[in-house]
Amino acid sequence: MRYIFVHGLGQNSSSWEKTISFMENTTQISHLDLFELLKDQKPTYKNLYLAFSEYIEEFSEPVTLLGLSLGAVLALNYTIDHPKRIQSLVLMAPQYKMPKLILKFQNIIFRFMPESSFQKLGSSKNDFIVLTSSMMDLDFSNDLTRVQCKTLVLCGEKDRVNKRAAKKVAAQIPKAEIRTVMGAGHEINVDAPEKMASILNNFLIKQ
Prior knowledge:
The protein has one domain: 3-Layer(aba) Sandwich (Rossmann fold), CATH 3.40.50.1820. 44% of the residues lie in helices and 16% in strands. It has helices at residues 17-21, 34-38, 45-57, 70-81, 100-112, 115-119, 125-134, 160-172, 188-191, 193-204, and strands at 2-6, 29-31, 63-68, 86-92, 150-156, 176-181. The protein has a 6-stranded parallel β-sheet, sandwiched between helices. The longest helix has 13 residues, at 45-57.
């Protein structure tokens, strides 16, 4: 089994390091940098998803996807398109229909942030704005039932923005369960890595 951790927007692969350090089996874990997958391509969601899909296809063994926020969107999208390819799925702070007002507000915040903040993540301010703008029309509302694998939906106790979507996702996916990570906000892997690892260990041991 290959476990692929997919970070959120504003993070990179190192955001998973503390969580992974508490995992019971780390030999089959991969945690990629999303912007590195794009190489020289325009940073649209379509291009990122295609590059992400190609990355997953490199693994011959069964795959479990574990995604946070943007990573959850990509993981959900791929599982909908390739339901037999994914053994199990973990969606953290997921959205199934992009909240346009939040994305627009996020883009406004990005415009006022220093370029150096984005360079630390291996990208640029414009790349972030282009990517979030290209996600505005994503909507998996009618596709959630296509996810047939065992699914764990996680949301931080303080993550008010994503709680409703997380509950909807868990209700619509046939084999899904939902858990709240106490004391955590949106970035569960940063706020509560040990708690999240414990939940993941319990879920994955059942696979």
